[in-house]
Amino acid sequence: MYADYQTVMLCIIAAMTLIAIVNLALIPSLRRSGLPEERPRVSILVPVRNEEAAIEECLRRLTDQDYPDYEVVVLDDSS
Q1: Residue 61 and residue 11: Cα distance in Å, rounded?
Q2: Which of 8, 29, 59, 76 is least buried, going by the fewest C-beta atoms within 10 A?
């Protein structure tokens, strides 16, 4: 009876291995590409509510980004 379980497990492992090999052979992979020369403008939206204690540090870190073209928009929803 124990040998039957071993045989079943061996068949399952063999089937999974075969599926993985077929997937590697037949499914195309994504080509690697670097960052585009022209990066899009990015808007960083910051919803705030009662954040007086933490907003200064948050905004300082956001404005320290090295991304070349972005804006930070702070949204106070007055809730």
Answers
A1: 54
A2: 29
Whole-angstrom distance, CA of residue 14 vs CA of residue 26? 18
**Dihedral angle, C-alpha 56, 60, 62, 68, nearest 10 °:** 150
CA 67, CA 52: separation in Å to the nearest integer? 26
Confidence band, pLDDT 50/70/90 cuts, at residue 45: very high
What is the C-alpha R_g of the chain?
A: 26
Q: What mean pLDDT comes out for the span 61-77?
A: 90
H-helix segments, the chain? 2-26, 55-63
Residues 20, 28: Cα–Cα separation, whole Å? 13
